[in-house]
User: What shape does this take?
Amino acid sequence: RRSAPSSALYLNSLCSSPTRTLQRGAFRVGEFASGDDARRMEDAPPPGSLAGRPPSAPALPDDVVPPPGSPAAMSRAWRMPSKAELQHAVQALRDDPYDADRCVACCTLLESATQRSSASHKKVLAAGAAEAFLVAMKVHLRNVEVQTLALRTLQHLASSVYLNGPKLVADVGACAAAVAAMNAHAGHPLLQQAACHALELVAFGGLEQRGRAVADGAIEAVVQALKAHKDSASVVQSALAALQVLTEEGENAVKRFADAGGVSSLVSALQAHKDDAQVSYWGNLLVRTLSTFSIDVKTEIQRKCHWKGLELDLED
Assistant: This one.
């Protein structure tokens, strides 16, 4: 069992869009955790994780003016919204969730704030943002931008274990909403990645949340994402990490994984990224979890991997 969520994947998700490349190297693992959670994440980062790498580029000195429109310029231009502004954005979502443009604007502000500052999580959660996002997601199920922004914000909020974020997010129905978004936008890799991260963080927050995610169909949805986007290393990594914590639910969860075609999808993904250390790491971790609850699934995975020339590391 791992002692912390997939910090490397969470970092990658925050940096996956061009406007967020400025976060690479500036991020610190403890920013989205506190106390023992932060120390565990710092003590044992996964192999090749961003947590274990030096910053990709040094920060610019304060007296150097970055080029207009550059990531550094955007970083300096951005400011943290005030508590009143955050509350206003949440209230706007609650008052009129049917205006798509307004929803996107509010979601963008809240996603940016919760991504950059864990201090905003308490304010946003207290304002009822989790419920507001779920309403917006239900109203705009076919709007991929609203869905992705909402999922990313729920992901950030679910990372605040010290605020009971995973439970608060799960209690409003985030797992079912994430599954619905994944089913409605099966061909959209960024949404699938964001949903996998959100489901992983919610499920990692406790037994109740994990059971709810499994019951809401998270395993089947993540397996489909793994199958549909096996050529995307980012989606594969996030899906494997989510499946690892979801299948810790036990024999029934492993059976649901197998019945959804998880074994073939897993082996195909490992084959497609056999030289990717992150994919191998999370793939092996998932296989260890599956092996704990089902010898038959373990044997089938080993047989399929053998025929494809893939080596597994099942030693703890």
The chain is about 65% helix and 0% strand. The radius of gyration is 19 Å. Residues 100-116 form the longest helix (17 residues).
